[in-house]
Specification:
By secondary structure, the protein is α+β, with helices and mostly antiparallel strands. The protein folds into two domains: about 1-210, Gyrase A, domain 2 (2-Layer Sandwich), CATH 3.30.1360; about 215-285, Beta Barrel (Elongation Factor Tu (Ef-tu), domain 3), CATH 2.40.30.110. It has helices spanning about 1-5, 55-60, 85-95, 140-150, 165-170, 205-210; strands spanning about 20-25, 30-40, 45-50, 75-80, 105-110, 115-120, 130, 215-220, 230-235, 235-250, 255-260, 270-275, 280-285. Helix 3 packs across helix 4. It is globular and about 60 Å long.
Length: about 300
Amino acid sequence: VRLCERVFTRPIANVRVGRCVYGLACDPGGGILMDVVLIRLAEDHFWYIQAEGDIEHWLLGNGVGMDVEVIDTGMRVLQIQGPRSHDVLAAAMGAPVPEDFTWFAARYFDIGGQRVLVSNSGYTGELGIEIYGNDELDHLRLWDHLMEVGAAFDLSMGASDSMAPRRVEAGIMDNRTDLSRALTPFAAGLGHFVDFDNGVFVGRDALLESDRTQLLWGLRCDSATPSRSDEVGLDGQRVGHMTVGVWSPSLECGIGYVRFDHPIEGGWEGRQVQVTVNGSPHPATIQALPFIDAEKRLPRGLPATK
């Protein structure tokens, strides 16, 4: 717990065993080093789910003088996402999904005769599960079992890129694409994940004094689909760039995240800007994230409100 609260910008002692939490790790200047999902498996046992970037050495460095062991388990994550994902899990277990396996819960289940750690989470903002591999599993056997039972629910294989439209619609950030050390949590719109009640985390002093202006926002364009690095302008002047852009199947328009170069009087939300796509400017609107399901009903298995 001491190491986790040293590294992450939120208290960890109150996280219950069998629960996941999302958090941020910052450098001493308050810049975002990594975003994390942390699973508490026991009172003294945590699993950190590796995002893009290197945090193992950061943990090792901050753990000097503490009675802790930091190891790379070599795990990889398999995701099953969508409204029928828990039906697939139930079929794979041969038993109903427990009622207390709620959003951001984690526990071991028997899947096809193998003990597997599963979390009720994912990278899409949909109802979903993540299955964690390890050296003791027969991964081919696990895969075949999941695909066999999943056929009844139209389960199909997809690469990580297939999740991009839903993760952007849901306002989920990608480290090193949308987030970087040049952004504080406040600039990224993630200030609610900074809890100064945790008095020991790296970057706390800098964040106490930092500007709270948000510079990372959603952008909606009805006439084109923006891409990463496309320039965003206002009154003929560049004011930012896209970190990601996709076609939204839910909104039927182009959407993405824009990182502004500087604040503006009155704030960026609601501004009408231009995004340059393939050399042509297109009108676009700046809005808060997420684009859909702000109440996070979908990952709880509830219908989204309109």
